[in-house]
Amino acid sequence: MQPQIFSFLFLFFIGFASAGYLQNPDFESQPKSLTENTSSPFVALNENNTIPGWTFQGTVQYVTAGQTIALPDNGHAIQLGQDGKINQTFTADADYTNYILTFTLAPGGQNCSANADVLVSGPDSQGIFSFKQHYGKEAWQSYGQHLGLGGQQEPINLVIESRGVESDDNSTCWPVIDSLLIKTVGTLVQGKDNLLLNGGFEFGPEFLSKSTEGILLDSALSPVLSPLRQWAVIGTIKYIDSNHFFVPHGNAAVEIVSGVSAGIQTDVTLTTGSAYSLEFTLGDANNACEGDFIVEVRAGSVVQNFTVQSNGTGSAQKSSMKFEAGSRATRISFFSYTSSQTKDGTFCGPVVDEVVLLSSNGLRLAIKPNILISLLFLILIFW
Ligand SMILES: *[C@@H]1O[C@H](CO)[C@@H](O)[C@H](O)[C@H]1NC(C)=O
Ligand SMILES: *[C@@H]1O[C@H](CO)[C@@H](O)[C@H](O)[C@H]1NC(C)=O
Ligand SMILES: *[C@@H]1O[C@H](CO)[C@@H](O)[C@H](O)[C@H]1NC(C)=O
Ligand SMILES: *[C@@H]1O[C@H](CO)[C@@H](O)[C@H](O)[C@H]1NC(C)=O
Ligand SMILES: *[C@@H]1O[C@H](CO)[C@@H](O)[C@H](O)[C@H]1NC(C)=O
Ligand SMILES: *[C@@H]1O[C@H](CO)[C@@H](O)[C@H](O)[C@H]1NC(C)=O
Ligand SMILES: *[C@@H]1O[C@H](CO)[C@@H](O)[C@H](O)[C@H]1NC(C)=O
Question: What is the CATH code of the structural domain delimited by 14-185?
Answer without folding.
Answer: 2.60.120.260
